[in-house]
Design goal:
The chain is an alpha/beta fold. It is 43% helix and 18% strand.
Length: 127
């Protein structure tokens, strides 16, 4: 069956990180968490790469847009989902160029975690 896919979850809210990581681990994924863009970069630089990153946009210091741009350019990461509470959010042009479209945006709070699971599976089938 192969190695489990690795998913980086980046969010500055501890409860969100805990819930997402527990759900994803229960689904068989290897989960790496980070509470900031800076911590996420440190972990990816140490690991080399991840299969998918789920990134919160509204974080202090380094927002999710900036983190995705850096991961895309420095680590050739190509598989992302945006996780945001801002219902007005649309991916800016630099993220569209990185392959992120409106279908890759998941809004919190998420009432049905299967929406996330389906989005992850769709991203892995595209990659």
């Amino acid at each position: 069956m192969g190695e489990p896919k690795s998913i980086l979850v980046v969010d500055d809210e501890d409860l969100v990180l805990l819930n997402l990581s527990a759900f994803l681990e229960d689904e068989g994924f290897e989960v790496i968490t980070a509470v900031s863009g800076e911590q996420a970069l440190q972990k990816v630089r140490r690991l080399g790469t991840v299969d998918l990153a789920i990134v919160d946009i509204g974080m202090p210091v380094m927002d999710g847009n900036s983190l995705i741009q850096i991961l895309h350019s420095e680590h050739d990461a190509r598989v992302f989902l945006v996780y945001t509470g801002n219902r007005e959010y649309l991916p800016p042009p630099q993220l569209v160029r990185a392959g992120i479209g409106p279908a890759d945006v998941i809004y919190k709070p998420m009432m049905d975690m299967n929406v996330l699971l389906q989005a992850i599976q769709a991203k892995f089938h595209q990659a």
